[in-house]
Design goal:
Belongs to the AIR synthase family. Keywords: ATP-binding, Cytoplasm, Ligase, Nucleotide-binding, Purine biosynthesis. Its EC number is 6.3.3.1. It catalyses: 2-formamido-N(1)-(5-O-phospho-beta-D-ribosyl)acetamidine + ATP = 5-amino-1-(5-phospho-beta-D-ribosyl)imidazole + ADP + phosphate + H(+). 32% of the residues lie in helices and 24% in strands. The chain has 355 residues and is of the alpha+beta class.
């Protein structure tokens, strides 16, 4: 009688050798996403960052943020393109950090897969490392977890956490905003990484569009449009704080422009945003029209072409716009801060979008 083979990790679906190969392939990219304060290299149990660099601060405040990229990973999987989703992950994390004025210092990532395909995992990490370079922070560690039986062999998800630092006296936020301040909008690169459940429902399920469909309004295929990486604003925002007075930033993610800007508007003040100051990219109007999505629903789900906003005093507007232009960021005055009553919303969008 033959004996039943003993159980093993490999038989359960976990390939340790593939995981080791993925680590080998990603090392080159992780090395490129460094800072002088990083101690050691990839492979330790924890990433090390030399905190003595913070001695130059009088009262350093550490800022922390964590996020993922939601169902945009499904587009990457279906497209077979894995080296851009990391840009999205970094942008979602570091641009939350910079809202309070914090400089992003380092990130860690978590990649969960149904089966480790070393080249795919390395491509994801490559994108994360490139995003960290764009954000000026280091990628000091991460984890790749294989979950056979829970995820399909080609399925994956990503998450990340970041740490930044800001001088206590330079902390930005609602306490600084005053009546008369001006709201500067910064153009989004596209959908960024929010609202993809709605986008996928409209474009795939309702409209029946395929990812390889060429869309004249986009000037490229649907898949290429949907995979456009999230713009990373952290260094642009920090450049503003170093050259002119800034009272607050708001990162436009889930909830849309109004809800996210309202998070930094103090009681008693009101922000009026004029839709006529910009024209949303075709992808936003396409989703709205194909899905017959009401404008309020669209605006609370998608960024509608604005990825970050800065609230500045009137005397800082010209310098801020000039700095952003020099850095290649399309920006414009979108509204202003006025006194508000008890029944006035913190943020209100008025008028129609430019056409």
């Amino acid at each position: 009688m033959s004996e039943t083979p003993g159980a093993s990790y490999a038989a359960a679906g976990v390939d340790i050798e593939a995981g080791d190969r993925a680590v080998t392939l990603m090392k080159e990219w992780v090395r490129k996403a460094g800072r002088p304060e990083v101690i050691g290299g990839l492979g330790g149990f924890a990433g090390l960052f030399d905190a003595s660099a913070l001695k130059r601060y009088e009262r350093p405040l550490l800022a922390s943020a964590t996020d993922g990229v939601g169902t945009k990973v499904d587009i990457a999987r279906r497209m077979g393109v894995y080296d851009t989703i990391g840009h999205d992950l970094v942008g979602m994390v570091v641009d939350d950090l910079v809202v309070c004025g914090a400089e992003p210092l380092f990130m860690t990532d978590y990649i969960c897969v149904g089966k480790v395909h070393p080249e795919r995992v390395a491509a994801i990490v490559k994108g994360i490392a490139e995003g960290c370079v764009l954000a000026g922070c280091a990628l000091i560690g991460g984890e790749t977890a294989e979950h056979p039986g829970l995820l399909g062999a080609d399925e994956f998800d990503v998450a990340g956490a970041g740490t930044g630092v800001v001088e206590a006296g330079a902390l930005l936020g609602a306490d600084l905003i005053r009546n008369g301040d001006v709201v500067i909008a910064m153009e989004a690169s596209g959908l960024h990484s929010n609202g993809y459940s709605l986008v996928r429902h409209v474009l795939f399920e309702r409209a029946g569009w395929a990812l390889d469909r060429h869309v004249p309004e986009f000037g490229r295929t649907l898949g290429e449009e949907l995979l456009e990486p999230t713009r990373i604003y952290s260094l642009d925002c920090l450049a503003l704080t170093r050259t002119t007075e800034v009272h607050a930033f708001a990162h436009v993610t889930g909830g849309g422009l109004a809800a996210n800007l309202a998070r930094v508007i103090p009681d008693g003040l009101h922000v009026g945003i004029d839709r006529g100051t910009w024209q949303p990219a075709p992808v936003f109007t396409t989703v709205g029209e194909l899905g017959a999505v009401a404008r309020p629903e669209l605006e609370k789900t998608l960024n509608m072409g604005v990825g970050m906003v800065a609230v500045v005093p009137p005397e800082s507007v010209d310098v801020a716009l000039s700095v952003l232009a020099d850095r290649g960021v399309e920006a414009w005055v979108a509204g202003d801060v006025t006194a508000g009553g008890s029944d006035t919303p913190a943020v209100e969008l008025t008028g129609d979008y430019a056409s």
